[in-house]
Design brief:
- Keywords: ATP-binding, Cell membrane, Membrane, Nucleotide-binding, Transport.
- The chain has 264 residues and is of the alpha/beta class.
- It folds into 2 domains: 168 residues, 3-Layer(aba) Sandwich (Rossmann fold); 81 residues, no CATH class.
- The chain contains 10 helices and 10 strands.
- The strands form 2 sheets. A 6-stranded mixed beta sheet has the order 6-7-8-3-9-10, with helices on both faces.
- It is globular.
- The protein starts with 11 loop residues before the first strand and ends in a 7-residue tail after the last helix.
- The chain binds adenosine-5'-triphosphate.
Length: 264
């Protein structure tokens, strides 16, 4: 489906310019930049070791960049700490799922919501009226989000007891709970079977249609090409192509570096 991508600067959610990162002797990223617009699904692909996760870690404050600049919804931001990035408006999921295993599904989503609440620690200790009202509202919202991702029935189960596919959905619900400007999904389809992938695709599409903006790292090329409005291809830390899936798929450097390998 062709989508009209608006061209105004105010529609830019994330703008990253000239980002580089070196680990010792290895240049993991060289001068990489992307611009993601509101309601886009933006794919970041490339062979193993291309630098995708490093790029995610830089925009979400896990690593610090050697150079480059970052803008979120028109404001410069310094991705220097994970919680600052979450507050600024980027929520992410992880390649290796990171949930609070002993907490229930509902509690995991409530944790995501807490960064947007006001009562804070004092309210929690004193259990003030406003704290209790706020907690009730958070629980209601968390339940809605579980319903949204299709696992409302699992609200009271501990996260560790959920199936792999459901844990990935739970991570997405937790990310949505922070009301992010941008949701960054790190290989959400990893380890999923064909049915789960289809459901995931529907979910990601629905999230976008609800006016969210998504950045996706994914090894499943079919999923990326079918879902994304725009794709950037990395190889050995360099951006070798960017554009619509149709354009990128035809790019000779991409075919040589990635699609032609047959390994994905
Ligand atoms: N903390 C680190 N210390 C040293 N080297 C690192 C570190 N993180 C990543 N690298 C190296 O940087 C390069 C890019 O890795 P990265 O994980 O970003 O690639 P990727 O595209 O996400 O790969 P994959 O598809 O396998 O997840 C690799 O050569 C990797 O070994």
């Amino acid at each position: 489906m062709e989508r009209n991508i608006p061209d105004s600067a105010s529609d830019v959610v994330l703008k990253v310019v000239g980002v580089s990162k070196r680990f010792g002797g290895l240049q993991a990223l060289s001068d990489v930049g992307i611009t993601i617009r509101r309601s886009q699904i933006y794919g970041l692909i490339g062979p193993n070791g291309a630098g995708k996760t490093t790029f995610f870690n830089l925009i979400t404050g896990l690593y610090s960049a050697d150079s480059g600049s970052f803008e979120l919804a028109g404001k410069a931001y310094e991705p220097s700490a994970v919680h600052e990035v979450a507050k600024a408006g980027i929520a992410r999921t992880f390649q290796n799922i990171r949930l609070f295993a002993e907490m229930t599904a509902l509690e995991n989503v409530m944790v995501g919501r807490h960064i947007r609440t006001r009562s804070g620690l004092i309210g929690a200790v004193l259990r003030t009226r406003s704290f209790k009202d706020e907690e009730a509202a958070i629980a209601r919202r968390a339940q809605e989000l579980l319903d949204y991702v299709g696992i409302a029935r699992l609200a009271d189960y501990k996260a560790r007891t959920l199936s792999y596919g459901d844990q990935r959905r739970l991570e997405i619900a937790r990310a949505l709970a922070t009301d992010p400007q941008l949701i960054a999904l790190d290989e959400p389809a990893a380890g999923m079977n064909a049915t789960e992938k289809l459901q995931l695709r529907e979910l990601i599409d629905r999230i976008r249609n609800d006016n969210r903006t998504i950045l996706l790292i994914e090894h499943d090329v079919k999923l990326v090409m079918g879902l994304c409005d725009c794709v950037t291809v990395l190889d050995y830390g360099k951006q070798i192509a960017a554009g619509t899936p149709a354009t990128v798929q035809k790019d000779e450097q991409v075919i040589a570096a990635y699609l032609g390998t047959g390994g994905h």
